[in-house]
């Protein structure tokens, strides 16, 4: 929760798109590394890095919507909230499917592929310059 409070200050210094790309990249990399970690301290560190990446990404997506969209921001923020809640609704279904797999490494690979898809989508976002109309 503390990292989500710091995301605004860090994004104002380095740019929203850059920090969002880093946050989503950290999420994907930590999910790839997690099944290969056999030390509880390393697993804890990777888990904290993953959660920090998500905590950075969520407010930055809202900030990016605020920067890019000129009119009808409320609608696009409600679409963002809908997609966020859709992800939380699909997560239990996905976890039931993933727990049926025999290899836990494949579970992390599937989840990290979703994170890398989000990272690839963030690469195509427009730059941080806010257009004035």
TrEMBL record:
<keyword id="KW-0472">Membrane</keyword>
<keyword id="KW-1133">Transmembrane helix</keyword>
<dbReference type="InterPro" id="IPR036259">
    <property type="entry name" value="MFS_trans_sf"/>
</dbReference>
<feature type="domain" description="Major facilitator superfamily (MFS) profile">
    <location>
        <begin position="1"/>
        <end position="133"/>
    </location>
</feature>
<feature type="transmembrane region" description="Helical">
    <location>
        <begin position="104"/>
        <end position="125"/>
    </location>
</feature>
<protein>
    <submittedName>
        <fullName>TcaB protein</fullName>
    </submittedName>
</protein>
<dbReference type="InterPro" id="IPR020846">
    <property type="entry name" value="MFS_dom"/>
</dbReference>
<feature type="transmembrane region" description="Helical">
    <location>
        <begin position="40"/>
        <end position="63"/>
    </location>
</feature>
<dbReference type="GO" id="GO:0022857">
    <property type="term" value="F:transmembrane transporter activity"/>
</dbReference>
<keyword id="KW-0812">Transmembrane</keyword>
<keyword id="KW-0813">Transport</keyword>
<feature type="transmembrane region" description="Helical">
    <location>
        <begin position="75"/>
        <end position="98"/>
    </location>
</feature>
<feature type="transmembrane region" description="Helical">
    <location>
        <begin position="14"/>
        <end position="34"/>
    </location>
</feature>
<dbReference type="Pfam" id="PF07690">
    <property type="entry name" value="MFS_1"/>
</dbReference>
<dbReference type="GO" id="GO:0005886">
    <property type="term" value="C:plasma membrane"/>
</dbReference>
<dbReference type="InterPro" id="IPR011701">
    <property type="entry name" value="MFS"/>
</dbReference>
